[in-house]
Write a structure and sequence with these properties.
The complex is a heterotrimer. Chain A is mainly α. Helix content of chain A is about 80%, strand content about 0%. In chain A, helix 3 packs antiparallel against helix 4, helix 9 packs across helix 11 and helix 10 packs across helix 11. Chain B is of the alpha/beta class. Classes of the chains: A mainly alpha, B alpha/beta, C mainly alpha.
Amino acid sequence: MTDMATAFPRGRDWMIGPGAVQRAAMLLALLISAGLGLSGPVAQPGLTVIALLLAAGLLSLALDGAERVAKPPWVVAVLLIAIFACLAGAAWQLAFGQTGDEGAGFWSAVIATWLGAWMFVARLSEMTPRAKWAQRLVGLLSPLIFGATLLWLWEAVVRGGDVPPVILPAPTVIAERFAANGATLWGDFVQTFVKGALSGFAIGVAAALVFAVLVDRSPFLRRGLLPVGNFVAALPIVGTAPIMVMWFGFDWESKAAVVVAMVFFPMLVNSVQGLASASAMQRDLMHTYSASYWQSLAKLRLPAAMPFIFNGLKICSTLALIGAIVAEFFGSPTRGMGFRISTEVGRLQLGMVWAEITVAAIAGSAFYGVWAALEKWVTFWHPSQRGR
Amino acid sequence: MSEQTVIEARDLGLTFETNSGPIHALKDVNLTIEKGDFVSFIGPSGCGKTTFLRVVADLEQPTAGEITVNGMTPAQAREARAYGYVFQAAGLYPWRNIERNVKLPLEIMKMDRAEQDRRVSEVLELVDLKGFEKSFPWQLSGGMQQRASIARALAFDADLLLMDEPFGALDEIVRDHLNEQLIALWKRTGKTIGFVTHSIPEAVYLSTRIVVMSPRPGRITDIIESPLPAERPLDIRDSREFIEVAHRVREGLREGMSDVA
Amino acid sequence: MRSVVPVLTVVAVILVLWYAAVIPMNAQWAYDQAARAEVDLSFSDLVAQTMSADRPRLPAPHQVVVELWNSTVMEELTGRFGLVETGTLSNRSLIYHGWVTLSATLVGFGIGTALGILLAVGIVHNRAMDRSVMPWAIASQTIPILAIAPMIIVVLNAVGITGLIPKAIISAYLSFFPVVVGMVSGLRAPDAMQLDLMHTYNANRWEIFAKLRWPSSVPFLFASLKVGIAASLIGAIVGELPTGAVAGLGARLLSGSYYGQTIQIWSALFAAAILAAGMVALIGLAQRITLKRMGMMQ
């Protein structure tokens, strides 16, 4: 992120100010919406929606003015919050205040709200507050608002367009399913993540690490294994799932076996490269101390390998969950995330499928997050971690 | 060979076999270094000055002749931890702070904890890095990093210090400063120092003896005993003696080159 | 080149281990066979039988190779439904199933890559997109997207879209994110000095993109293409599972596991591996040629 300043050169490109295009388009869509709303017969966006959107547009003009004459930050903050409140109010009305017969005016208002949210994010992204906490807040708000806008659009489109739930259930329906089936989801999570993915991950990673240390003793083996390992890492190993089911049965053991097969080679390749990454000079230094093999392993090569090892762990943490879920598509007991997804898809209960996918997404990113946090703690010295 | 002899090389040779034929990195090198000497090795790249130091340190194996370090083979000397080695780059471990970097050789030599702490604070004092114990290498300037690496080489108190262009990557101002400190350190500790450089003023300023080398094959062309006094302030470099020695070194280097060209 | 001998050694060791594993894995079956026929089994008989079982728990490497040969070249040349007899690919041949999977993979990969590059260009040039979309693009790499594959297939089937397109969509989705993340770092690869140089020439955004950012991103592009194509293939294979084993390598895997046809599973798996390796190798070749032309490689 170091070249941020030069990556976004200010100059003639930015003469019109951030979000101005979006605002113009938003007001145009609003105009159309209002026009259709006045002339159209049924179920057009209510007056509140139009008023709120108009207010958001006008407030953003006021924000331009406030920034031009460099008003104090709290004025800018209040204006931003007000714009956000207007947009959120309009969005809420559009998603949940529907009458069931939405027409062109409604969709035009949806588009206006979308453009308004975009304008808001664009304004926010251009802000460069001086305080550290405020910078962090802005960095957090932009993606959150973007995500929320996507969710809202999903909800509004599904409700407004009467999308059948067997094609795409609304987020609120998914959330309701999620809340109502806590016990089932937890059982599936334990079966697939804790028993299948986690045990397979632990075995595969540990085996790869031990093997890497052994391989590291022989340059011949290393030269031979690295290309083979890289090759195998690119293969569709998930395909071994039917074989593993045949060997280890339907329960979690076969899933763990698939995960072991999936994570072993990426982990091995990364660890071997890591162990070989200490520079010749640092090895010479160890030699001048007449350090033993284990001393140089513990004090030099393992610490130097840590960035590579963590890279492998992060890659494997995603592979593990994918392997455990997909392996269940080939046969499983009557629980597990993959099992639930494939059977509920068959019964067209998509709300439950999406709830299960939500669990998978949370589990996946949390598992990855754990390794990323550990990495930051262990390899604080590495240039890629120091900048932040 | 007297009691005082630290390094003794007799007809030393080292030939690398490469795809484009053999390379004579060292040929017929004869040299005796006495205890307390500060010996500089100077010459153009490829003259074998670094290779010689690496042979002394048992990082390369000679293919001809003999060499002893403290009367032992280089391998035995290494196992007896007879020397400290300073590389071109500081080569500190980024995951250890300065204190623990200096401790590294002591940990490997399995010294007890109290002794480790005592020595670390002693050598950090010596290289003027007190107060930076808890800093990480990447938080320090290049000159400070190199001083820490010298402290690391001094930590286990070997009588012989081998330095391979330790200040080559630093700017001239920092370099002058470190040269001054190195002289002071050498006088205070009475160590024997082998010092590789390609800077004539640096070699003349620091050394009691200057070994001039030339390439293809790598060999010694001249050994100059420095007439400079032990007390050497920086401005000694403007004195007549200094300029004469520097001139002789330059002549030696030129002669070595003309053989080849 | 100097890696050839070590690599061959490692491969040989793997093959030897494989053969060694075949005997204990299939021994039980051979003993049962012998007990039923009430004959004593000598060790050489045991080895011979375990290496040639019909439905072995672990087929020997040569059995897989023979099956691969039979279900590709032999099937098309001599089979009743083969290319020679009928003029169309046999639905029993791996060439047919491989092509079904490959075509979906390639279509999806093409779409995913194109969209990924577009989004990356947008992210690099628009701060709002960088701030709002990029965190999600990175986060999406950590979640098992493959889990939604069955749903996409079934839902698209329900609205009447079948065949190649649903699988291609999954493939596109899987190759999209690696390309976005790789290309964003590629387009950002030029350092401040190089950007400043362009600035001194008064270059506009388009010129900076065409003369600096795009060329610098090419090595990154190829790296993410290799990741993307492997992901695309997996997506297409998994996309073939929920439709009930109609066609494609995924279908072969699934039907093999239904009927206990282990040799069929292994040959389908190897066909998939050969496809993956072939495509990665092709991209590697394109990378070598391109980088050589651009003078980025010696």
